[in-house]
Amino acid sequence: MAAKASTLPVSIFLFFLLLASGGIFEAVNAQRTWCIPKPSSDQPTLLANIDFACSHVDCSIFQKSGPCFHPDNLMNHASIAMNLYYQAMGRNWWNCDFNKSGLIVFSDPSNTRHQSTRTLNVLLSYKH
């Protein structure tokens, strides 16, 4: 029993060392993550997010001639713009804040039955 009690302070020390070094945040960022708007986001918020993101990254992928134009709706276009920004800036939680309207997800939002395979392939291979 004494051996287990003596390992507790070491475990606590290692946990705080990992926390202080940013290791926990790096572990989260190592997973595949995407940034999308919260479903409750209103139209002005989505437009502001698109404007902000597209002022920093190339958003031509969802313009009329782009491969990700369809489905042609604000939520889809905001999702793409916000995720392009999030990926380009390093996939940090603060790069998906968008005034508290962003949401980090762990499943690929382009993997829906509404997206074409071509659009999915372009999204997965698109590099800024």
Automatic annotation (TrEMBL):
<protein>
    <recommendedName>
        <fullName>X8 domain-containing protein</fullName>
    </recommendedName>
</protein>
<keyword id="KW-0336">GPI-anchor</keyword>
<dbReference type="InterPro" id="IPR012946">
    <property type="entry name" value="X8"/>
</dbReference>
<feature type="signal peptide">
    <location>
        <begin position="1"/>
        <end position="30"/>
    </location>
</feature>
<dbReference type="GO" id="GO:0098552">
    <property type="term" value="C:side of membrane"/>
</dbReference>
<dbReference type="GO" id="GO:0009506">
    <property type="term" value="C:plasmodesma"/>
</dbReference>
<keyword id="KW-0325">Glycoprotein</keyword>
<keyword id="KW-0732">Signal</keyword>
<dbReference type="Pfam" id="PF07983">
    <property type="entry name" value="X8"/>
</dbReference>
<keyword id="KW-0449">Lipoprotein</keyword>
<dbReference type="InterPro" id="IPR044788">
    <property type="entry name" value="X8_dom_prot"/>
</dbReference>
<keyword id="KW-0472">Membrane</keyword>
<dbReference type="GO" id="GO:0005886">
    <property type="term" value="C:plasma membrane"/>
</dbReference>
<feature type="domain" description="X8">
    <location>
        <begin position="33"/>
        <end position="116"/>
    </location>
</feature>
